[in-house]
Write a structure and sequence with these properties.
The complex is a heterodimer of chains A (361) and B (342). With 361 residues, chain A is of the alpha/beta class. Helices cover 32% and strands 20% of the residues of chain A. Chain B is built from 10 helices and 12 strands. The chains are: A alpha/beta (361), B alpha/beta (342).
Chain lengths: 361, 342
């Protein structure tokens, strides 16, 4: 069955990438000061590709996705920079104008499938709601479409499930319903914000496979946000690592893993327990905590926790510099795997300390 | 994989905790139906050992941990802890075992009272049991906070002023302060970031060495369980599938479900493409009407007639490796779960 797709609301610019974010900043005014949640992020995403955004809690990855979609409350939020979707500038659009994009052209899946579905509305209604809003179809057709969507996300007995409420489904099934809701109008861009963090590993694999299958079928771009590098390793075309509201390293997936330059990326990778390691292996950890985003440290934001930090790192903020491979960028004065980086690490290890003595908590 | 049996149990004299034929059922309203949360599970733990219990949501791993604590008491079965039969204890006698048998929960923030200071939270066990005088209690609290990496100078703060990882450290401090022998950790790192998870896992190993602890470590992530455990028990729908040392479990899983759990773990290596044929399809069946025979047979590509009629017993397949399956995998054998059902 052919799925009707919402009409583009503005003329697409030929040749433009699907999503082009330039120097996006998102700050929140709080009683404690300005929180720099997203601080100058630029990225592009082509149709049909997957971008993984990885970072710890508080690194700004969720705010970034909300800010791109324009989902943040107006009050107290200061946004700057540019977000172009299909060649159309979104930053200047009001929430009312954004309604033509939400659900129809760009959609989002959230972490907790229980709280992102309406508990007092039947599954069927939640799916047909956006279909009826965006597409000019009658009720019967919308219901038929909903059944097909549930079938495509592999929910057994879809006709019967339409009449169920969210609490009657398991966590994995609920997340499938959320995916069906997000896919309902055939969006060109899907944000998945920790879509499998609340799910079991076996269900996680099912849901990620399902998203990949739907992406191939629909030629949809996906932004996959997660704190687990393992989740994006086999799924993303490109990965951006975020720290303190900025992208600190961005590269095609295989390059990020094989030619890691940023010490933070390396530290994240080595903190994952690996199956092939014998049990009781000591895990590598990152000392300390992410910086305070109201008054971030001068210089490199990661320096206080970095094993190879040097005095320069505490004073000068490293810019995002290109690596050898096209598309590889990182922020570091003493990158991993380079003579300068190895030298810095060796110096610190010999001295038994980093640039900030006692910076490790 | 629905499995029962006690072939994997060791010398009762040597074990700190020995659970036999544990059954936990919950009634479902007034329907007369019951949820078969744990059905005939046996386990034992030697002193100083870490037992990992792993399985999907609804496999009964948390219920098993709670039933050991008698929260609630199991329907049948025995729980012998340090020579005491816990299922026979009631009221004050049961309460008296609490300082020696502690628990750590999944959500570190909601398991701490938001209105009390960290010092009060950690000291409460000592206050209740009247251990030492006030100065000795405060010194003990300072000592354990120091040990878990919380600055005692911050003990006057309340839980919301700490991050999730720090709250989990406080939970660990609260658990060790009464000097228990056994701590049951129920998904202690599931709510944490990968980097914080590594810190907490290392901390648990340190605490184990420092205070001579024995741990039950419950989690759904086999990679995490493998890292901390001396012995791993895989559960499915209230039954034991496989019991083995973590390294042999990883090297040669004997139960098809163990193989499925291993295959589902995302590998942080872009060279390894996720293999959809090795991902387990379908959903866990209802524990109100579990399948006959082996409870895993409805999702198992190897299931045959016999699996529906006869429940497999735990038996040994290799040194220290026990499996409850009629058709276990040979070492090195892989299993294809085929095109995804459901």
């Amino acid at each position: 069955m052919t799925v009707p797709v919402a009409e583009p609301t503005a003329e697409p610019v030929p040749g433009a990438p699907l999503l082009e974010v330039t120097d996006l900043t998102t700050h929140f005014a709080t009683p404690g000061g300005i929180v720099r949640a997203v601080d100058g992020v630029s990225l592009t995403l082509e149709r049909g590709k997957t971008l993984g955004i990885v970072g710890e809690s508080g690194s700004g990855k969720t705010v970034l996705s909300r800010s791109i979609m324009g989902l943040l409350p107006k009050r107290g939020t200061i946004r700057g920079g540019s977000v172009r979707f299909d060649g159309v500038e979104l930053m200047t659009r009001s929430p009312k104008e954004m309604r033509d994009f939400w659900g129809a052209r760009m959609a989002m899946i959230f972490q907790d499938p229980m709280t992102s579905l309406n508990p007092v509305m039947k599954i069927g209604k939640q799916i047909t709601e956006s279909i009826r809003h965006h597409l000019d179809v009658d009720r019967e057709y919308a219901t038929e479409l909903a059944v097909n969507l549930l079938r495509s996300v592999r929910i057994p007995e879809p006709e019967r499930r339409l009449r169920d409420y969210p609490h009657q489904l398991s966590g994995g099934m609920r997340q499938r319903v959320c995916i069906a809701v997000a896919l309902a109008c055939g969006p060109a861009l899907l944000f998945a914000d920790e879509p499998t963090t609340a799910l079991d590993v076996t269900v996680q694999a099912q849901v990620l496979d399902l998203m990949a299958a739907q992406q191939r079928e629909r030629f949809m771009a996906i932004v996959l946000i997660t704190h687990d590098l393992g989740v994006v390793a086999g799924r993303a075309d490109e990965i951006a690592v975020m720290y303190a509201g900025r992208i600190v390293e961005k590269a095609p997936t295989s390059v990020l893993f094989t030619q890691t330059r940023m010490p933070y990326t390396k530290a994240l990778l080595s903190s994952i327990p690996k199956l092939e390691h014998p049990s009781h292996s000591r895990l590598a950890t990152i000392p300390g905590r992410p910086p305070n985003l109201v008054a971030p440290p001068a210089g490199c934001k990661f320096a206080p926790r970095c094993a190879q930090a040097q005095p320069r790192c505490l004073e000068e903020d490293p810019p995002l510099v290109p690596g050898v491979v096209p598309g590889h960028e990182y922020r570091c004065w003493f990158p991993v795997g380079t003579p300068e980086g190895d030298d810095a690490l060796a110096r610190n290890q010999a001295a038994g300390t980093t640039a900030i003595a006692g910076g490790a908590a | 994989m629905a499995g029962r049996g006690t072939a994997h149990l060791r010398d009762p004299e040597a074990s700190l905790l020995r659970v036999e034929h544990l059954v936990v059922e919950f009634p479902v309203g007034r329907t007369g139906l019951v949820v078969n949360a744990v059905s005939d599970v046996s386990l034992d733990i030697l002193e100083g050992e870490t037992l990992g219990i792993v399985g999907e949501s609804g496999c009964g791993k948390s219920t098993t941990g709670r039933a050991v604590m008698q929260l609630p008491p199991p329907k049948s079965g025995t729980v012998v802890y340090d020579g005491m039969e816990l299922t026979a204890l009631k009221g004050e006698a049961l309460r008296a075992t609490r300082p020696r048998l502690q628990m750590i929960f999944q959500d570190p923030i909601s398991s701490l009272n938001p209105r009390r200071t960290v010092r009060d939270i950690v000291r409460e066990g000592l206050d209740i049991w009247g251990i030492g005088d006030k100065a000795a209690r405060d010194a003990k609290v300072d000592e354990v906070l120091e040990a878990v990496g919380i600055d005692p100078a911050n003990a006057g703060r309340r839980p919301h002023e700490f991050s999730g990882g720090q709250c989990q450290r406080i939970s660990i401090a609260r658990a060790v302060v009464t000097e228990p022998k056994l701590i049951i950790c129920d998904e202690p790192v599931s709510a944490l970031d990968v980097s914080v998870q590594a810190q907490i896992l290392n901390l648990l190993e340190d605490m184990k060495a420092r205070y001579g602890l024995t741990l039950v470590f419950i989690a759904h992530d086999l990679a995490v369980v493998k890292n901390v455990s001396d012995r791993v028990m895989v559960m499915y729908l209230g039954k034991v599938c496989e019991v083995a040392a973590p390294d042999s479990l990883y090297a040669s899983p004997a139960h098809p479900y163990t193989a499925a759990l291993l295959a589902a773990i995302p590998v942080p290596d872009p060279g390894v493409r996720p293999d959809t044929s090795r991902v387990l399809g379908g959903e866990i069946p209802s524990p109100m009407a579990p399948p006959s025979g082996c409870r895993f047979r409805t999702r198992c590509p190897r299931a045959e007639e016999r699996c529906a009629t006869e429940e497999p017993e735990l038996r040994t397949v290799a040194d220290g490796q026990y499996v409850a399956c009629h058709f276990p995998l040979d070492p090195g054998e892989t299993i294809d779960f085929g095109p995804r059902a459901g």
